Amino acid sequence: MKKVITDTKKVDEVLERGTIVEFLPSKEEFRNKLLGGEKLKFYIGFDATAPTLHLSHAKNFMLMEKFRRLGHEAIILFGDFTARIGDPSGESFARKQLSREEVVNNVKKWKKMVEPLMDFQDTKNPPKIMYNNDWLAKLNLEDVINLASNFTVQQMLERDMFQKRLKANKPIHLHEFLYPLMQGYDSVAMNVDVEVCGTDQIFNALVGRTLLRKLKSKDKFVVAVTLMENPKTGELMSKSKGTGVFLDVSPQDMYGQIMAQPDEMIEILFVNCTLLPLDKIAEYMKFKNPRDTKMKLALEIAKIFHNDDIASKAQEYFISTIQKKQTPTKLKEIIVKSSKLNIVDLLIKSKLVTSKAEARCLVVQNGIKIDGKKITELDDIEITKDGVVLQKGKRHFVKITPG
To answer: What 3-state class would DSSP assign to 396?
Structure first.
């Protein structure tokens, strides 16, 4: 069994990083528990409501890895059942309920994205992946009624998003009351000591704390982490809205997406999504040009998800194609049968877009170039025998040649 690390400096390095914003019941009690030497069972849950993850999710996996490296048990819970209920957190309307098949497909993709962030090869104390369908799907109506009897309607209505809906005269669906109940029961089923969650999940985590106390006479710590919002706009990375820096993109796109983040997000991303010491981050933040600081950030994050060589090549690609506006020397090549194609059809065949509507929109917004020249009309494109270079935005290039 791996020994629990109780070195004060190492424990405080995790707690003082800045990713954690709230400890319940208190930071002092939680710190003393960590220093006490008992192996604790940590868990964090994610509902697989979309096929991808972003950096705001990544920082939570990285925090769990830090607790695991202190010698504690780390459980990554995929909400393959709760995702089908729909978490009302932060929503002004009920979420779309997903099918079992949709959720399972999302989970498969997520597992691959998580692998660079945690050491699943550790033979002594590997992270564990669990699924709440394993116990929630087995509850019968009597079980659900018994769980629900531990709470009042007034307690459920205390959730801020429910209060907002009531004031806006918007509906609150009955199944949405069941969500915190089911997430709360996860803590009971796994018999955990600590739940790590976003600040938007504190209510659900406290439901779990109540159920653990009532059903198992056991207390649970709640460790709430920042949601990494933009300090100027309040905007969050969102998997459902498709905004942020995503984990399943190419190294070049990941580097580019980080470079596209506003300057006010640089330090937040450094602290939350890299393993660099805080004094090193402070050194980078003193650079006169924010672009140079951001390039250090993009390289560091790309290293985590790929490796040093691939990350360096992604940086070289960005410098040549974005900063120097050069066309890459190595391009993906698409062969088409016709020597003349409408720009919309050409974009579809190139797989630079997923729909004709997206293609038309990009052309109208001047987001498409052929051999470096902007395409402003939805016209036919002549494809010469040597081929043409089709470009979307600043980073995406495809060579089109006639077959």
So the answer is: strand
Rounded to whole angstroms, the Cα distance separating 398 from 43 reads 43
- Does residue 85 belong to any structural domain of this protein? yes
Q: How does DSSP classify residue 323?
A: I
- Whether residues 154 and 34 fall in one domain: yes
- What is the rounded distance in angstroms from the CA atom of residue 282 to the CA atom of residue 285? 5
Burial call 114-137: b when 16+ CB within 10 Å, e when fewer? bebbbeeeeeebebebbbbbebbe
What's the CA gap between 183 and 84, in Å, rounded?
A: 12
Instruction: Give the integer Cα–Cα distance in Å for 354 and 16.
Output: 43
Q: Which two tokens stand for residue 285?
A: 């933040």
Instruction: Identify the H or E element spanning 221.
Output: strand 221-225
Distances (CA, A) of 60 to 131, 223, 308, 327, 355: 18, 11, 23, 37, 33
CA atoms within 13 Å, Cβ hemisphere of 3:
3
pLDDT tens track, the chain, 403 positions: 568 999 999 999 999 988 899 999 999 999 999 999 999 999 999 988 778 889 999 999 999 999 999 999 999 999 888 888 866 654 544 556 677 788 888 888 888 899 999 999 999 999 999 999 999 999 999 999 999 999 998 988 888 878 888 888 888 888 888 889 999 999 999 999 999 999 989 999 999 999 999 999 999 999 999 888 888 888 888 755 656 798 988 899 899 889 989 999 999 999 999 999 999 999 999 999 999 999 999 999 999 999 999 999 999 988 887 776 666 666 677 787 777 878 888 888 888 888 888 888 888 888 888 877 888 788 788 877 777 778 787 777 777 887 7
Instruction: Tell me how far apart the alpha carbons of residues 195 and 70 are, in angstroms, rounded to a whole number.
Output: 16
User: Does 57 reside within a domain?
Assistant: yes
The residue from 271, 304, 323 where one domain ends is: 323
* Residue 326: its H or E element: none
Cα–Cα distance for residue pair 244/57, rounded to 1 Å: 11
Domain boundary among the residues 169, 191, 225 is at: 225
| CA dist., res. 350 & res. 336, Å (int) | 9
Give the pair of three-digit tokens for residue 209: 């704390």
Domain that holds residue 262: 251-323
- Rounded to whole angstroms, the Cα distance separating 387 from 401 reads 4
| pTM to 2 decimal places | 0.79
